[in-house]
Amino acid sequence: MTPHRQPVTDASAWKPEDLDRDPSWNFTLTDAHRDELAEALKQVNGRGLRFAEIRQKDFPLPTLSDMLGRILRELRDGRGFALLRGMPTDEFDFGDLEKLYWGMCTHLGIGITQNSEAGLIHYITDGKLRPQEGARVLEKPGIVNLHVDLSDCAGLFCVRQAPDDPPSMVASSMTVYNEILRQHPEYLPRLYRGFPWDRKSPYLNEEPPSSYFNIPAYSAMDGVVTCRFHPGWIRSGLDQTGQALTDGGSEMFDFIAEVALANSYPYPFHQGDVAWVNNYTVFHGRAAFDPVVEESGSRVLLRLWLDLPNVRRFADEVRVRYGAVRHGKMGWTADELLADKHLTPHRRRQDGVPESPHQGSISSSP
Fold it and tell me: Which residues span the domain enclosing 336?
């Protein structure tokens, strides 16, 4: 892929002072919105629906849907980051909170499985609710460095925060791109060429000899730049394929991390807050926190991975968008999960790149 050598100038290339100057990425639920959520929950409970069975039509939000539409536009066409405050937590158990969160997010996109347990909702906690597989580092109290997740969008719902209240962080990967262009344009060809990524627990017949394909760390289509960079997954992928970082790769990775941190925006993330990030334009992470022994005091976040409608133009959609996530029990929709399709391999192109079995199903905007 030929590097795009023009700076990103749209709203996705922001700096911390831009978020302070224009807080339109920050949303707050009203009492009427919370009543709508409670009523929608009452309806799905009355029908005996599990959270994975809830579709947008099952979870009507007459006035909140307008705010969620603005959040979706902010994620796709704005800064790629949105924060919603005021979700109810104390009056519901975890089963109902899953339905509230999932039902609300059906107005944004389609949830996909995110670990080898085929989990649609991933509990980020060091308590008893943590999953056995996937993203275990996120549950530990140490710092979580700025990174991307494997879906279009990651959503985090804070049900219970650690007592010392660690801030979360976001940074624009488009601002990082501009700094690469300005300070180290020689990095671009290697970033566009891409790297193999680690893949957790793929099915055996998802591993033909050609399956170790590169995923571009940066790519562009019609002037729209996309980031797909996670040094941990990349380093592990290089190890799996017997490769090593060359051509100053370690220095390049360090530069990206340093620029991202220097341009990061810390924000308070409290109980009842939901944060969404567009993984193609935003890195996210958090500060460390003190460990808690008591289960009742453990930090608990609910994470959703969402495919968003009309999210972006891609140079090679299946490679860039789906190459890191469509393998094994990861990357399946709720409909596919309920139909047991997650027990079969993902379809793959001749070059080993996974195709999306639900391509076209999220093509229309709400």
Answer: 16-343
